[in-house]
Design brief:
21% strand; elongated; four-stranded antiparallel beta sheet; alpha+beta; 323 residues; 7 helices
Length: 323
């Protein structure tokens, strides 16, 4: 077993992206004088050119794309490895990420290589056409490289099931009413929402109201999801976003099988905010203790919140009394 699982899986997920752009980059270097000053870079469904870009810009864009994808996928895969990961999903998500990275590398590698070679020895972007079978070849390469990634990717480390860490139930007498609530928030998430809300009108005035409106809507959504109130009572668990209490997510008590607490990272869900992954969903605004609800369906709902132990104890007490 490797002594550096984070580094190993990070390289395994990030490395293919550098290999993906390598054929296109090498081809540009060796055939530089045979390429036009402006290369066709976007194509319609019939293979005709819909956009073009300067030769030097294409060259550095390829390198930048490879580095960006490599660092991003490598970081995410590495962050999901090497430490005890709560089995929030029945899927082996770190391994799945490696497989998807290899598949993406095969797909991009073929398309980018076809893009560059289609521009060689042409008089300009207007005379370029992308081979009709390029997309089919790219899909085939994605399947092949994804299969290679599946063979190379190590399986996730086994962990104890959440049931072994179930929080003790709070003793509740018949007819006793109990309620627990805590607020959760992300300062940087809220700051991002404010920045987007301010940038939207400016972008709309300078560039156009379609991109400006899109940024404004994104800012409103981020601002709404930057804070929430988590409530546990006889009805179950409710997460109400913003001061308006909307949108809200509720898991009824009759849908819950058990409640537990574990440390959870947003990386396990692919990011911050309200997230959905195979087998689980949740509200994740920070790394740390999280209330984890195992539903009767087997799916899990997760919310990172302070004093999650008390919330889990209350829920287990309500469930025990109902039984």
């Amino acid at each position: 077993m490797s002594r550096h699982p984070k580094l190993d899986r990070g390289l395994l997920a990030g490395g293919p992206q550098l290999l993906a752009v390598a054929p296109a980059v090498v081809t540009m270097v060796t055939a530089w004088d045979r390429l036009p000053e402006r290369l066709a870079t976007r194509f319609a469904l019939d293979g005709s050119v819909s956009d073009h870009m300067g030769r030097l810009a294409v060259f550095f864009s390829l390198i930048g794309l490879g580095l960006l994808l490599s660092v991003t996928l490598g970081f995410v895969a590495g962050s999901m490895s090497g430490t005890r990961v709560v089995p929030l999903s029945k899927w082996d998500l770190p391994r799945l990420l490696v497989v998807l990275s290899w598949g993406l590398a095969g797909f991009l590698g073929v398309l980018l290589f076809a893009l560059v070679t289609s521009n060689i020895d042409t008089e300009g972007a207007a005379t370029v056409s992308l081979p009709a079978l390029a997309l089919l070849y790219a899909l085939g390469a994605a399947v092949l490289t994804g299969a290679i990634g599946a063979v190379l990717a190590p399986r996730g480390r086994t962990t104890q099931p959440l049931e072994d860490h179930e929080t003790p139930a709070m003793e509740l007498s018949a007819g006793e009413h109990v309620s627990w609530s805590r607020s959760i928030s992300s300062p940087w998430f809220r700051a991002l929402g404010v920045v987007l809300l301010m940038a939207g009108p400016v972008l709309g005035w300078v560039v156009g109201w379609v991109p400006g409106g899109t940024v404004l809507a994104a800012g409103l959504l981020v601002a709404l999801l930057a804070g929430a109130m988590v409530t546990v009572d006889r009805r179950g668990t409710t997460v109400a976003f913003s001061a308006l209490g909307w949108p809200r997510v509720r898991v009824g008590l009759d849908e819950i099988e058990s409640a537990s607490v574990e440390d959870v990272s947003p990386i396990q869900f692919g990011g911050w905010g309200y997230r959905i992954i195979p087998g689980a969903s949740g509200v994740l605004l920070r790394t740390g203790p999280a209330l984890i609800l195992t539903r009767t369906s087997g799916r899990r709902f997760v919310v990172t919140v302070d004093d999650a132990e008390t919330a889990a104890s209350v829920l287990n007490g309500l469930l025990a009394r109902r039984a």
